[in-house]
């Protein structure tokens, strides 16, 4: 059976995230031979501990989050004075 160069078993990624100190950890998904999974898309896994925050971020990228366990919210916008703010809430527990 052939293995894909872009498959990363969750148990391995979770162990790497849980091994990082601090309340928030991020790991890039990389091809088995090195480099990004795609020339167009990148993949990341994040862990944010309960009752903590990642802090404000301003980025020029798009992100799609798949929540494995827990719940939380994201504030979109509102970084500057007079700007509106949207709140996105999510909750899930599968594992």
In short:
The protein is mostly beta strands and 95 residues long. Helix content is 11%, strand content 32%.
Write the layout of secondary structure elements.
Blueprint lengths: L9 H10 L4 E6 L13 E6 L20 E9 L7 E9 L2
Antiparallel strand pairs: 1-2, 3-4
Describe the protein's architecture and organization.
- This protein is mainly beta.
- The protein has two domains: 1-48, no CATH class; 64-95, no CATH class.
- The protein is globular.
- Helix content is 11%, strand content 32%.
- The strands form two sheets. A two-stranded antiparallel sheet has the order 1-2.
Encode the helix/strand succession as letters: HEEEE
The 3D shape can be described as globular
Strand order in space, largest sheet:
1-2
Structural class: mainly beta
**What fraction strand?**
25-35%
InterPro entries: RmlC-like_jellyroll, RmlC_Cupin_sf
Structural descriptors:
single chain, mainly beta, 2 domains, two-stranded antiparallel ribbon, RmlC_Cupin_sf, RmlC-like_jellyroll
